[in-house]
Design goal:
Blueprint lengths: L9 H52 L23 E6 L5 E6 L5 E2 L15 E2 L5 H6 L4 E4 L3
Parallel strand pairs: 2-5
Antiparallel strand pairs: 1-2, 3-4
């Protein structure tokens, strides 16, 4: 007479649960870095999109916009908001920069007269820093606050 067992034995369940626990302990820290990296990528993408909208406005009109209201909705659907909290930015030299964002928004300031086509400095900032300054910092971590 053959006995048929429905389900798993307690030993099989313990083995599977312990394997899942070990795998989750290994991979959960990597998922946290992925979220931080996504926030960092969003910061860079938002700042570049704002810069592009300003440059397109300049090409079409011959002058820079006085404020962000001139850019919306013709050049951008909405003005983006930065993700708050810790972000991870991979810089060009493959170093990682941890950015703690406490700033509530990206700030546009019109370039100085005479510097319009020679530099991007002074247009879009987050916590008082432009994208070039963020990417070229030698620090390993930054905190960006509203000014």
């Amino acid at each position: 007479m053959i006995k048929r067992h429905n389900g798993f034995s307690i030993v099989e369940l313990i083995v599977v649960i312990s394997l899942l626990s070990i795998l989750s302990a290994i991979f959960l820290p990597h998922f946290n870095n992925v979220n931080m990296l996504a926030r960092g990528s969003k910061i860079l993408a938002d700042m570049n999109a704002c810069e592009s909208a300003v440059n397109i406005y300049y090409v079409r009109t011959g002058s820079f916009p006085a404020d962000i209201d001139a850019l919306i909705p013709s050049y951008m659907a909405t003005w983006p908001k930065p993700p708050t909290g810790s972000s991870l930015i991979k810089k060009h030299d493959n170093n990682e920069l941890i950015v703690d964002v406490k700033a509530t928004g990206y700030i546009y300031s019109m370039p100085e007269t005479g510097s319009e086509l020679t530099t991007r400095i002074g247009r879009i900032t987050l916590g008082g820093m432009t994208i070039d300054e963020i990417l070229s910092t030698s620090e390993s971590s930054l905190t960006l606050n509203d000014k």
